[in-house]
């Protein structure tokens, strides 16, 4: 049973990292099923080795996701999300959502913080690709292990992995963009919440979702006052809303996720 019953979209680009994440989710849920107070996993529950979810390691062999990966994730996570009124352990929620993001391989992530916005387009494999714009002014582009930044009324400046002292701010922007765009960044934050409590269905931009409230720990110096997340039937995040208080200042943040599986086209950059 799934949280929402709609037709799943087509994903692209299989890969080792994706397969490993699915294995982790399956293994974690197997351990959860065998935890204290449990009679063990259901007899018909597939073992991780039986599901064989790991995709090809060679990026050149990567194509659409192996059906075993999607089925393994649905089977494993579906057992935990099957009861709409029961809370979901934070560790489980984080692993399932991250694995779903990795299966899609690419996405658009819009982040808003107190009126400012980052618009990121991310592709994970076969090489990490990022095209990010801050309030239509600063633009950051990453292709594999190289990164560029462009400020208003200026050309492209390569600032990653190394840059001259006067361009260190650009290096910091690229580094932060890479780290905060990866699914693992969100997983580590989500898993700090002991549980995710269902808040009911909601349609967001014509997408059927299920909402959860949680109490994650702020990884900086602030206190999380509220945190709500909505996921689709494949456990991918659709929208996040949070309020954080830090040093007496209250900030509101939202994330919107879309364009799952779409290719990321980078602008032409003169070398």
Write the SSE topology.
Elements: H1 16-33, H2 48-51, H3 67-81, E1 88-89, H4 90-104, E2 106-113, E3 116-123, E4 129-134, E5 138-143, E6 146-150, E7 156-160, H5 168-181, H6 183-190, E8 195-204, E9 207-214, E10 223-231, E11 237-246, E12 249-258
Antiparallel strand pairs: 1-8, 2-3, 2-12, 3-4, 4-5, 5-6, 6-7, 8-9, 9-10, 10-11, 11-12
Helix pairs in contact: 1-3, 1-4, 3-4, 4-6
Region (Disordered): 33-73
Biased composition (Acidic residues): 55-73
Concise summary:
The protein has 271 residues and is α+β, with helices and mostly antiparallel strands. The chain is built from six helices and twelve strands.
Structural summary, described in words:
Residues 55-73 have a biased composition (Acidic residues). Residues 33-73 are annotated as: Disordered. There is one protein chain. With 271 residues, the protein is an alpha+beta fold. The chain folds into 2 domains: 16-106 and 183-258, no CATH class; 125-177, no CATH class. The protein is built from 6 helices and 12 strands. Helix 1 (16-33) runs antiparallel to helix 4, helix 3 (67-81) runs antiparallel to helix 4 (90-104) and helix 4 (90-104) packs antiparallel against helix 6 (183-190). Residues 1-14 and 30-64 have low confidence and may be disordered.
Question: Percentage of helical residues?
Answer: 25-40%
Radius of gyration: 19 Å
In the sheet with the most strands, the strands line up as: 1-8-9-10-11-12-2-3-4-5-6-7
What share of the residues does DSSP label as strand, in percent?
25-35%
What is the typical, i.e. mean, pLDDT? 80
Task: Report the principal-axis shape.
Answer: globular
Number of strands: 12
Number of helices: 6
Question: End-to-end span in angstroms?
Answer: 51 Å
Query: Largest beta sheet, briefly?
Result: 12 strands, antiparallel
Uncertain residue ranges: 1-14, 30-64
Order of SSEs: HHHEHEEEEEEHHEEEEE
Overall number of domains? 2
Helix/strand class: alpha+beta
